[in-house]
Amino acid sequence: MRFTVIDLLTKKKQGSKITMLTAYDYPFASIVDEAGIDMILVGDSLSMVFQGNESTLPVTMEEIIYHTKIVSKATKRAMVVADMPFMSYQISKEEAVRNAGRLIKEAYAQAVKLEGGREILNQVKAITEAEIPVIGHIGLTPQAVLRMGGYKLQGKHPEQAKRIKEDALMLQDAGAVAVVLEVIPSELAKEITESLEIPTIGIGAGPFCDGQVLVLHDLLGLFEKFTPKFVKKYANLREHILKALNQFRDEVEKGLFPDKEHSF
Ligand code: KIV
Questions:
Q1: 215 lines ligand 1 (CB under 6 A)
Q2: Less crowded by CB within 10 Å, the N or C end of the chain?
Q3: Which residues have a Cβ under 8 Å from the Cβ of 211 and sit 6 or more positions away?
C-alpha cells in the first residue's frame, strides 16, 4: 500500500515522525522504497547533485518528468513527490495547474512541491482545486538563490520569522497537505510545527519538525562539492566506489581479471 496524504496527517496526529529522501533514478529509488522511507522527492536538487549545475534553476519540466517516471516505476510503497521546477508555476495559476497535472498524468507522481509562501497562494489553491496534493516549501527556497544572495539561514530576524510563520499558515489555508521548512532556526520550526494541523518536514530546521528530509546524495556521501552544516553523512559511498573501481583497473592491468571463475 502506498503512503498517502491520509497517512501524512495520521502520522502528525500520532506524533510519529515522517521520513522523506530524494531519489532521481531506478536503483536508488528502489532502495529508498525498500528501506521504508515514507516519501520520495524527485527534487530539483537533481540539477546540482545529478547534472552538476551550480544551482537548481536550470532544471526543466521535461527533466523532472523523465526522472519522476523512473522513480514511480521503481517504487511500491513510498509517496512520490515531484518538485515543480523554476518558472513552471510562477507565471500564472493556469500554467501551474497544467504543469502540476503533467507531473501526475505523465510521470505518475502522487503530489507536487512548490517553493514560496504568500506569493504563490493562488497557484497552491488552483492546483489543490484540480485535486492534486501540494506540498509547500518555505524558509530557504533554493529557487530564490539569486534574490537571497546565497544559501543562508532564513528567519533569524523577528520580522523575517513572523513572515515565515504567516506563510506557513497561509499555505495550510490554501490547501497544502504538508510544508517543507528549510534552513530556519529550530525554535521557529517548533513554533510553526505546533501552529499547523498539517505536518512540517524539516531540512536544516532542527528536531521539532514532524518529519525530516535530506538529499540522498548528501546522506550517502556521493556529493563532494560542499556539505551544508545540517547534512549528516550516513555513508561515504564515493570512497567505497573509488576503492572498487581502482581494484578493477589494477586487476585488469595486471591480467588478474577475468580469472577462471569469471570465464567460460
Ligand atoms: O530539491 C530538493 O531536493 C528539495 C529538498 C532540499 C527539500 O527541495
A1: yes
A2: C
A3: 11, 17, 18, 19, 20, 38, 39, 178, 199, 200, 201, 202
